[in-house]
Amino acid sequence: MHLKCTRRDWDSYKKMAWLNDELSPKSGKPKNTFGGWGATLVDSLDTLWIMGLKDEFEEAVAAAASIDFSPDSTSDGIINMFETTIRYLGGLLSAYDLTECKDRRLLDKAVEIGDMIYASFDTKNRMPVTRWSPYKAMKGINQYPAERGIIAEVASSSMELTRLSQLTGDMRWFDAIQRITNVLDQQQNKTYLPGLWPVGCSPLSGEFAGDSTFTLGSMADSAYEYLPKMYALLGGTDAASQYARLYSHAMNTAMEYLFFRPLVPDNADILVSGQTRAQRPSSASLETEGQHLTCYLGGTLALGGRLLSNKTHVEVGRKLTDGCIWTYRNTPTGLMPELFRMQACSSPSSCELDNQQWESDHGQRHPGFTHITDGNYRLRPEAIESIFYLYRITGDPKLQDVAWEMFQAVEKHTRTDLAHAVLKNVMDPELGTEDSMESFWFGETLKYFYLIFSDPSLISLDEFVFNTEAHPFRIPRP
């Protein structure tokens, strides 16, 4: 079913939006949102290979090899370096790894992008320019890191640049990201919640401790996700131990200040990750707003716990994943909203819902949710991603049943004549869909749905580690 779905959507992209960034799944129009370099094409390379669509893969590789990544080729005046790194560089490196490093065209293209990314680090303090202008670079005009930035964009290129250095033997890319990691290390205990870095940072001054908003969701997520994954990718080296230490400290702080058990009708023992504002630990104030984006956390903790032999992290990862499963199952569509609010239990052990009190406080609609902030379902992968990790790590067959339920809900509510589209409101499917299908639908969501029903030896977690766009990199072996 997943294979049939992928082939159908891919055929539509190939027919109507080939070499463009995205296909508009209702109108069939091409759309360019990430430089006009074919984001869906590059994001899909490894998915095609994993699913055994070898003819489609070879055709896509040939097309990717023809993409001109030179600064004057982009359709955008400003390049989002984070998205360029995770989608384009990640997609090319993964395809190169999966084909056992036999197609030099893929590595050559990866180096081409890597050189552009490296140029964004050409600043006085070696902090990257996250919105980089190819035009200014060509004209020799200096570019500076932003005075105000977000940690996810500054600290989430470590896996891609590390793997590029590993494959080429050129250490300049690894050196570039290691400078950022060292700054994070130096400031981890200087923030208002020691262990966690706030969302806001100043790349211009190199300040990562001054903001007071803490979350593991939007604008911060991949910075944390990459800590245990870098430990895996660096396998046993001295540098790996630094990432293990940063990860353990961050997650232990998150368990104390960010995760909460919500009050739900069936008294389910689940966790959700919220947002905290703090000027010091004693002033920490938890906001119980959940995000679909934080659903990656269950997989991150399960993987980190497995790598570092920490059973508590695996158990907490399962409860966070169960929280996302609960949220899917308790909407009219069986799909999770983008943003929502819940009520935290008075304590993790005291969590009995009083129905009369609930109706008095919140009315009868959507029990368990106090408010739906954003009802979109954007074809996102984070929930199925964590279900995949937990299945691979625990072997619990119930997780496959959950995955099948989710896939059926996605098919029912997002399928169009051409492909799949964003659902406007998971609480009211009658509102229909938006004409949008981001490249991560191919690159991540469909891939995880396929892999959870595949033999665990296919992209084994012992041999590969996924970047935040679900591109698997081979873990080097001595």
Folded structure, characterized:
The protein has 478 residues and is mostly helical. It has a single domain, classed as Glycosyltransferase, CATH 1.50.10. Helix content is 47%, strand content 9%. The protein contains 17 helices and 16 strands. Strand 1 and strand 2 form a beta hairpin. The mean pLDDT is 95.
List its salient traits:
478 residues, mainly alpha, Glycosyltransferase, 3-stranded antiparallel beta sheet
CATH class: Mainly Alpha
Shape: globular
CATH architecture grouping: Alpha/alpha barrel
Number of domains: 1
Outline:
The chain is mainly alpha-helical and 478 residues long. It has helices spanning 2-16, 39-50, 54-65, 81-98, 104-119, 134-139, 151-154, 158-168, 172-187, 221-233, 238-257, 297-307, 311-329, 355-362, 382-394, 398-414, 440-451, and strands spanning 22-23, 30-31, 79-80, 131-132, 149-150, 200-201, 213-215, 259-260, 272-273, 275-277, 285-287, 289-291, 339-341, 371-374, 464-466, 472-474.
Helix and strand arrangement:
Layout (H helix, E strand, L loop, with lengths): L1 H15 L5 E2 L6 E2 L7 H12 L3 H12 L13 E2 H18 L5 H16 L11 E2 L1 H6 L9 E2 H4 L3 H11 L3 H16 L12 E2 L11 E3 L5 H13 L4 H20 L1 E2 L11 E2 L1 E3 L7 E3 L1 E3 L5 H11 L3 H19 L9 E3 L13 H8 L8 E4 L7 H13 L3 H17 L25 H12 L12 E3 L5 E3 L4
Antiparallel strand pairs: 1-2, 3-4, 5-6, 7-10, 8-9, 10-11, 12-13, 13-14, 15-16
